[in-house]
Amino acid sequence: MIGIVQAGEQARPDRFTYIPMVGLLIAITWLAAGWLKLWPRSLVAMAGVAHICCGCASRVQAQYWEDSLTVFQHSLDVTGGDNYIGHHQIGMYLLENVPDQFPQAVEELLISAKINPDYAFGQNNLGMAFIRAGRLEDARTHIERALRLRPNFAEAEANLGSVFFQTGRLADAISHYQAALPEAGFCGSTLQSRRGALHAGGQTARSSGTLRGRIASQPRCRHALQTSAGASANPRPRE
Q1: CA-CA distance, 115 to 109, in Å (whole number)?
Q2: Could you tell me the domains of the chain?
Q3: Does the pTM exceed 0.85?
Q4: C-alpha atoms less than 13 angstroms from C-alpha of 102 in its C-beta half-sphere
Q5: What average pLDDT score do residues 120-130 get?
């Protein structure tokens, strides 16, 4: 908390100042109380000026916190062009919130990956963007790199499963969907994707049974169970 030991990827978060600032603020308060006894009128005037300055500074800073885009754009402005996190976050914001700026989102993710090719989350999210663009080979390249950098990366496993599913490699798709299942946050979507791959391969009974078995071992996947029940009642015709 005091910043002596780095915790996480960030070096100096604001929260590292919370506890250390307590002592400084107490000291400033006691000092101001002593000055108030000596120069009551001048100190009151100085406090008024300080409040006005703080209000103006807060108004300026609030503009940078309008949304995630303005926050990370400001971070690029003050840190220079080699801020791969800033480019990555801008790319993800555009990707998820501004559909008509999809090319710009991909460009930002590409810049991030070029600055730091060893950032696993950036490689995976760039791959996800390429999936949406239909560039499956490019997607596979970046997602596989993400998995080399971060083994057992559930989201990347699920995305690679999606690439293989769309290219008709159903066995590989099922394998990667299976690898993503231990991550509870992806259980619902991944179980459904795995069921779809099994179903496409003509293994309808196995898909329903496997889905229910997995949910039994991961109780938080209630939505997947409900969807499975509906799909089992209305199975798709085989080609």
Answers
A1: 10
A2: 64-150 (1.25.40.10), 152-239 (1.25.40.10)
A3: no
A4: 9
A5: 95
